[in-house]
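Morning!

This is the sequence you dropped in the shared folder:
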Amino acid sequence: MKIQTNVFPVISAIDLKAILNDDHLVIVDCRFSLASPESGMTEYETSHIPSSRYLHLGQDLSGPAGDGKSGRHPLPDPDHFASLIASIGVDNDSLVVAYDDSGGAFASRLWWMMKWLGHEAVSVLDGGWRAWLATEGAVQSSISPHEKGTFTRKENALLLASATDLLDQGVNLIDSRSAERYAGEAEPIDPVAGHIPGAVNRPWMQNLDEEGKFLSPKLLLERFTDLDQADQTIFYCGSGVTACHNILATQIAGLPMPQLYAPSWSGWISDETREVERSEGVSADSLTK
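The structure's back. Tokens below.
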């Protein structure tokens, strides 16, 4: 049975179990930790959803950082990434389902990148690894063999925003980081604290309920209901990863597809001439590391 290409942005563990043996399904494990970059691969080798492949945020879902202008997790070369996707068995008619154990923080990066390459049949497992185990989904430790796929990329450059685009009048600019990082009250990763001028804050974690699943389309629409008041909406985060979670949430809510400023905060501050905004009352000593 061929899986339809018009799919919802997220899929439940129950629905994934129902199609687990379909030949058109490719499941990708995206588990990752910034604090321990190799832990995701270790967890995958220990136990994963049957037949799933593993993609590493730093090695597979990002390109070389270079001079830092493209941020801490730059997008990889699209030709290289398309070849990688084909190598894990993705065909033009495959349904790709991504999962992690971080509320979709890393799986949504793959979801967005597949959209970027023009592949519409992609979903994120709602609730991720935790939801799969809760439904007593099958697991395995062995790595299943797979054939190379035939994948043709149709890169959609319109999904990307440039630094110049951020300063256009009438643009909705959304910072996806925590409120503390947005305000400049704390910055545990990047050398400068604050946010891009004009941005408003929508922390990505607030897209989830207590079980780590996405809120209902109605509630997500309420979170982002003001975004359709401008001609252009652009999301960013620290390095272009969790902003994809917010973009995914807008699609669950039924809103138009926004853009991603992929270099995000880490890329923005690589140019010392660019302005930075911080909340009033934040001490200068707390703004750099």
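Headline: The beta strands are 10-11, 25-29, 53-54, 95-99, 122-125, 171-175, 200-201, 232-236, 259-260.

More detail when I'm at my desk.
O.
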